[in-house]
UniProtKB/TrEMBL annotation:
Pfam families: Na_H_antiport_1. This is Na(+)/H(+) antiporter NhaA. The chain crosses the membrane at residues 28-49, 69-89, 110-129, 135-156, 168-187, 193-210, 281-303, 309-332, 352-371, 383-400. It catalyses: Na(+)(in) + 2 H(+)(out) = Na(+)(out) + 2 H(+)(in). It is a multi-pass membrane protein. GO terms for biological process: regulation of pH. It comes from the Bacteria. The gene is nhaA. GO terms for cellular component: plasma membrane. The keyword Transport applies. The keyword RNA-binding does not apply. Keywords: Antiport, Cell membrane, Ion transport, Membrane, Sodium, Sodium transport, Transmembrane, Transmembrane helix, Transport.
Amino acid sequence: MSSPARLFARGTYGEATRIAALLRRETVGGVLLIVGAVVALVWANTPWADSYEGLRDTVVGPASLHLDLSLGTWAADGLLAVFFFVAGLELKREFVAGDLRDPRKAALPVAAAVGGMAVPAIIYTVINLGNEGGLTGWAIPTATDIAFALAVLAVISTHLPAALRTFLLTLAIVDDLLAITIIAVFYTSSLAFGPLALALIPLALFGFCVQKRIRSWWILLPLAAATWVLVHESGVHATVAGVLLAFTVPVVRSEAAGGPGAGPGLAEHFEHRIRPISAGIAVPVFAFFSAGVTVGGLSGLGASLTDTVAIGIVAGLVIGKAVGITGATWLVSRFTRAQLDTDLRWPDVVGLSLLAGIGFTVSLLIGELAFGPGSLRDEHVKVGVLTGTLIAALLATAVLKPRDRVYRRIAEAEARDDDGDGIPDVYQEHGRTVEQTSPRETVDEASERRRNPSAEG
């Protein structure tokens, strides 16, 4: 009888290495995001709050193209398109060439992402049933901010195992895709089919160029900008253009370029180039222009938190995410008879689910789309998102930190390399844990030795 499948088992060595490097970059971006949000929050609650609002509401851009937008809108519509482009590249790569191309491995993070969006939305809706105007914001507590979550992990110095970090990242990526779908379907108030149809032309040309492995920025950037402008004109939120452009980029190398084994494809090339712009500039600037809410002291904070919109957001982020993600993981375990990896316990899943309740970037964006930037309800949304995020971070810290000794032991085992060949002595191969038996043996060599034992010696 075959052994039961393991939830949160260690992934392949190559994928684990790539994910680790990616998470380090996201952590730096998360710190910058927090800095941008704190600066905005402090500035908006000083005697100079009017200067912050004046900067945020400064209008720039050509009116002839309907692009005379405030700096805050440019950050939400323009800079976040870069963020969603990177998210789209990562999502496509995971499902085409990453560990998640295996449906059995993809099932858990996809189910967890769906549960982690559905339950918060239900909780928010139930709380706001008597508040007809508040129901518009049902999607606000459904998002997970991976950069913010990783920054929290860095601050509390927990050695979360690679499998849990990978799960958190993948969940957040699927979460982003579902969020952009929600934005496109439910937060498009008016649709102009002419510009939307015209957007297919530069989008198709961009796709043709990248499929031909053309990397010239002076060709691709104007096509991407034209796609963004036309999608913006259509009434669909312009960030959708970022995801559509990302999905056209090839993940693996063509046979003419040496095939999949010849190195990273164009999607990974673009990701390396653009992720620093997204994490280091786009998201922190958006946070700066979106997080500046004038609280008005404890009385103002209390008044904001009496609004059922803010209550629903806090409950959705803190309770909904924990229940949705943990519940979905339990259901996958129950119906597939999979078991948690031997070193992990269900409190680890609960802690990770609480960490996923750190919603910021996309939550603030949906809040602006639902109630209008600068409106009273939008101010309450910001208070709710910030409060829910803070509570989720504190609860996740309380659950995960006591387990850090276990996590440290797992991390040391994952990094063990007694023969000094740069490859862990224990890694995953085709879903099985494999131990190297010869010095300086690469993963490919180990795989070949196991496929063709007669070739040894």
